[in-house]
């Protein structure tokens, strides 16, 4: 497996007068949506594409619902999803309230196979 990358120049936001530096940036090689996932899964087993699509839609709906309840959602060996947040710092614990929360995000922790992918992946510079 191999990922294409391109080179981008970026300024240092903390020192705008510093010379730009160059960084590698991954290039996406297309999009795989639920329709295509359902088709791919159906081709690999005895379940119909429509059944696969229905299961994937249900998976999406349930992951979102459970995250909204504050639960960690483990998706087998793929990994787990969890809600995270950032808040404003306060001088005392009593001063911290829901209004201190400034940002929420979904955290993903990859499972073993996906972590192995991150180690084993190779890179090719785009021409």
Q: Helices, strands, pairings?
A:
Blueprint (H helix, E strand, L loop, with lengths): L1 E9 L10 E6 L7 H11 L4 H20 L4 E3 L3 E9 L13 E10 L1 H9 L1 E4 L2
Which structural traits does this protein have?
127 residues; 3-stranded mixed β-sheet; flat
Describe this structure in words.
2% of the residues are buried. By secondary structure, the protein is α+β, with helices and mostly antiparallel strands. It contains three helices and six strands, in the order E-E-H-H-E-E-E-H-E. The model has no long low-confidence stretch (mean pLDDT 95). The chain has helices at residues 34-44, 49-68, 112-120; strands at residues 2-10, 21-26, 73-75, 79-87, 101-110, 122-125. Helix 1 crosses helix 2 (49-68). The protein has a three-stranded mixed sheet with strand order 2-1-6, with no helix packed on it.
Mean pLDDT across the residues is: 95
Rg (C-alpha, Å): 21 Å
Number of strands: 6
Spatially, the strands of the biggest sheet line up as: 2-1-6
Structural class, from secondary structure content? alpha+beta
Q: Provide the β-strand percentage band.
A: 25-35%
Overall form? flat
Low-confidence region ranges: none
* SSE order: EEHHEEEHE
The number of helical elements comes to 3
The largest sheet is:
3 strands, mixed
* N→C terminal distance: 18 Å
Helix content: 25-40%
């Amino acid at each position: 497996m191999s990922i294409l990358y391109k080179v981008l120049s970026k300024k240092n936001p903390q020192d705008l007068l510093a010379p730009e530096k160059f960084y590698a940036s991954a290039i996406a090689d297309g999009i795989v949506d639920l329709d295509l996932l359902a088709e791919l899964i159906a081709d690999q087993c005895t379940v119909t594409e429509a059944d696969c699509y229905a299961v994937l839609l249900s998976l999406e709906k349930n992951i979102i619902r459970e995250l909204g309840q504050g639960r960690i959602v483990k998706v087998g060996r793929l990994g787990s999803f969890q809600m995270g947040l950032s808040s404003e710092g306060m001088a005392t614990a009593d001063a911290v309230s829901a209004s201190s929360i400034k940002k929420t995000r979904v955290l993903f922790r990859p499972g073993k196979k996906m972590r192995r992918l991150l180690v084993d992946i190779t890179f090719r510079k785009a021409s």
